[in-house]
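User: Fold this; tokens only.

Assistant: Input:
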Amino acid sequence: KQWYQRRVRDTESEQASRSVANLTTTDQQPGTFNDKVLLKNGPAIFQDTVELQYSQIMDTFINITNTWSKGYLIVNDVLIGRYWPDAGPQYTLFIPGVYLVEGRNTFTLIELQSV
């Protein structure tokens, strides 16, 4: 499956993203943070669905260390938590089985920094 990106259309988010996009330090390239390229258009929302059978519903977790930079995970309209693996200590997010349903489950990532 492919993640679909949707732009956040909020003036506060756009202002915040501009200040993050201009973040530089003496040992980093402009528009980067910890050697990761920042999102040029500000925060982005990625969403996908997963079909589960009843026998597949159980406690699980998602590991976000290699792909995502900083943001929030929402599963079926429930905020699971925030992640920021570059700063730690949160490297995986626990998803209780009670938040998953038989059939279509929607996973939403609100990425604030880079992909």
